[in-house]
Amino acid sequence: MPLVTMRQILEEAAKGGYGVGAFNVNNMEQIQAIMRAAEELDAPVIIQASRGALKYSDLIYLKKLMEAAVERHPDVKVALHLDHGNSPQTCKQAIDLGFSSVMMDGSLMADGKSVASYEYNIEVTAEVVEMAHKHGVSVEGELGCLGGIEDGHGAGIAIDDDSHLTDPVQAVEFVQKTGIDCLALAIGTSHGAYKTMRYDKDGKALPPRLALDRIETIEKNLEEAGYKAFPLVMHGSSSVPAELVEEVNKYGGQMKKAMGVPMEDIQFGIKRGVRKINVDTDGRIAMTAAVRKVLWTAPEKFDPRDWLKPAREALYELIKGKMKDFGQAGHGHEYQPISMADMAKKYASEAAATK
Ligand SMILES: [Zn+2]
């Protein structure tokens, strides 16, 4: 499957000074929506699957759907990434399936819930890097713990608990000791739609408090240690648009008032070294709003295509907007893909050079 590696996509993004959306998928309609948006906008893109998605799609369906995506859109620079791998075994499974990138989230133990020690995190992440780089596969690591729980993954840390944020000094050592290709930061974002339960006096949801200054400090520290323009990753970066939540509720939904990460905060991060931006929740809400509208306004309908098509369309529109806002649109044609075999050689020569 001729996928592009995440390392190449993020290196190019660093050169161009833009961010790349990493969008979660579980089924055909989501993959089609993202690939269509990427092709039309000439945008490099990262498609990611969580452990939950792999289970839902019984592994093989997702693999084959991605093969179809690449065949249907041969010019799109797309990486297939494992989101929140919980163990080296899970990462190996994804590599064997043909993923071009994996995340080893060693900030949590293999149960995906208990907070892990720093030493454990280094050990499992370095193990995955050694295994993945032999195949030319990129690796994302995470330092510090994100808030919230999604798909059963997460320690459920309260949003205002600063003790789990990424330590800017430790970040450099972590990158040095593990050899990862990009680093996921804990700066106060969290997974899911309800990132904060903060409201103003009129009951309006307030955005999460983010430690945005850490992005700049971490990037600067890495640069001083010789890691120029090291790619950083923002998780839990859905903006939870109020109009989509309203649309869901207008057609019988019962979502609570919520507010995600404002686009200005994400763009602030992109200017300071954030290259991968994970978005899942916004796509879920967009699709649910579209499905609800059909079933609510036309209750006589019973053909799944009558609601899957609008859901796919809604996701496509949402993704197009994100691609423009993150800046990835228009950059796909700028480079030629490096094969995973060539990337493996590159890693080997880099490793030899540092010995
Ligand atoms: Zn995440």
Keywords:
355 residues; TIM Barrel; 13 helices; binds zinc ion; 8-stranded parallel barrel; 12% strand; alpha/beta
Number of helices: 13
Bound compounds, each kind once, are: zinc ion
**Which percent bin holds the helix content?**
40-55%
Largest sheet: 8 strands, parallel, barrel
Can you describe this structure?
The chain is built from 13 helices and 8 strands. The chain is an alpha/beta fold. It has one domain (6-238, 265-280, 316-354): TIM Barrel. The two termini are 32 Å apart. Bound molecules: zinc ion (ZN). Zinc ion (ZN) is lined by residues 84, 146, 191, 235-236, 278.
Compact description:
The protein is an alpha/beta fold and 355 residues long. 47% of the residues lie in helices and 12% in strands. The chain is built from 13 helices and eight strands.
List the helices and strands and how they pair.
Layout: H1 6-16, E1 20-24, H2 28-41, E2 45-50, H3 51-56, H4 60-72, E3 78-85, H5 88-97, E4 101-104, H6 118-134, E5 138-143, H7 168-178, E6 182-185, H8 213-224, E7 232-234, H9 242-250, H10 263-271, E8 274-279, H11 281-297, H12 304-326, H13 340-354
Parallel strand pairs: 1-2, 1-8, 2-3, 3-4, 4-5, 5-6, 6-7, 7-8
Helix pairs in contact: 2-4, 2-12, 5-6, 7-8, 9-11, 11-12
Bound molecules: zinc ion.
Zinc ion (ZN) binds next to loops.
